[in-house]
Design a protein that fits this description.
The chain is of the alpha/beta class. The protein is about 30% helix and about 15% strand.
Amino acid sequence: MSPAKEASANPVPMKERIKIPRQGMPEQAAELRVMNFTEVNLGYSMELARQEALRCLECAKPTCVDYCPVGVKVKDFVKLIVAGDYLGAAAKIREDNVLPAITGRVCPQEDHCEGFCLLHKKVDSLGIGYLERFVADYEQKAGAPPAANAAPTGKKVAIVGSGPAGLSAAGDLIQRGHQVHVFEALHEIGGVLVYGIPEFRLPKQVMREQIDTMRKMGVEFETNVVVGKTVSIDELFEEEGYDAVFIATGAGLPVFLNIPGEHLNGVYSANEFLTRINLMHAYEFPRYDEPMVGLRGKHVAVIGGGNTALDAIRSARRLGAERAYVLYRRSETEMPARAEEVKHAKQEGIDFQVLTNPVEFLDDGRGWLRAARCVRMELGEPDASGRRRPIPIAGSEFEVPLSVAIIATGTSANPLVQSTTPGLKTNKRGYIEADSESQRTSRKGVFAGGDIVTGSATVILAMGAGRRAAKAIHEYLNTGAW
Ligand SMILES: Cc1cc2nc3c(=O)[nH]c(=O)nc-3n(C[C@H](O)[C@H](O)[C@H](O)COP(=O)(O)OP(=O)(O)OC[C@H]3O[C@@H](n4cnc5c(N)ncnc54)[C@H](O)[C@@H]3O)c2cc1C
């Protein structure tokens, strides 16, 4: 790929751009942030944003765009930053992404846009996520009105679930002129973005502002509606007059280890643990007196190595855990968590015990957790996931004294909607079967996407599915063809 020859507002000659170092993200010092839940990353200033934007090589065929699941026009919005038109840059991002302040914070850019940036072949990739966040926060502060929607079509779409898949579909559909109503089982909008990801990575206020923008665009939200219980998908069509339904219910059912002692007091699923912190406000102690505050001075471990595991253990540390461990059965190389999160966790004093697997939780004699019995592991040949298989080392067992253990080894599909919707096909793991291009399911007029189709994935992949569904729903509503 060769850099573009077209005119550019960037005053830095092409061959000089590679010499500008990637601008670091200002962050809260580790020793301070372990005592609070305020955001770790503080965001670029205008100067840092401009300096970083100047590094863009403005490739003729930008692979960063090709590898973005929602197709954000990176080169175009970065050019607008260079030109000082931050609201223009925000509008450019919003053409493809309704949640830029979210993706700018939590998207694994290293696996998408930044991983395929031409700069990455020689030096650090362009800080696309940091720039996206800068522009989104600037737009929010400026209070810019959302872009106008197309003329009303008179068609009604129901969206089940308000995580990134549902929100992304809602944003695209409302802009195409359809009436959009989002049903959410919980009392807060946002899915994992509010009940899972903690305040120090994604402040609730940022989330609320993004939702407010969607409300201004005309999206209607209804909380405390459990589709499959409060109302069925059939009733949405037959009694409430919806023309299409998009199911985006995520994969929020916790998976346990099935080892002895897992029933003990003090053993949590990461889902419950994080929900208590996020939605039951343990992070706002003493304003809210949620029982999680009992972690002070305790030894806590999380089992797992993904973003969920790190969110849980870093939250435990902030709630006063004296020792905070990650117990992970593979090595750090295989760890699925984002590299930045691993770095931040280490700075915060989290003790990574890799190649370590708990085989039993031990009772203190009164029904509470006292320790985890663990074995050391070694890595064998790659397994079906492509990662090297962990194998227990005989005779390596040892105990880790613990008061709290958090299981973060995965989740699965909640079966409620599937079991109450006749004709909706699922695969053998209980996920909804949907076409990978159109997100169409086996039921006419019903589309599905995000984690409920793929299993646990990422915010941007869920948003990509939401966009594809919105496009296909629009076509279906226009033509009636299935
Ligand atoms: C703790 C944690 C941290 C993560 N960190 C990252 C990260 O840093 N970066 C990243 O890219 N990804 C991350 N992920 C993964 C990412 O959040 C998910 O892949 C993504 O949220 C999936 O989006 P979704 O819209 O499919 O589902 P969800 O976000 O799960 O949303 C589904 C929504 O549907 C609602 N719902 C379920 N059933 C019903 C029903 N019957 N009726 C009505 N509503 C219903 C749920 O309450 C929920 O609000 C993380 C996941 C977790 C758990």
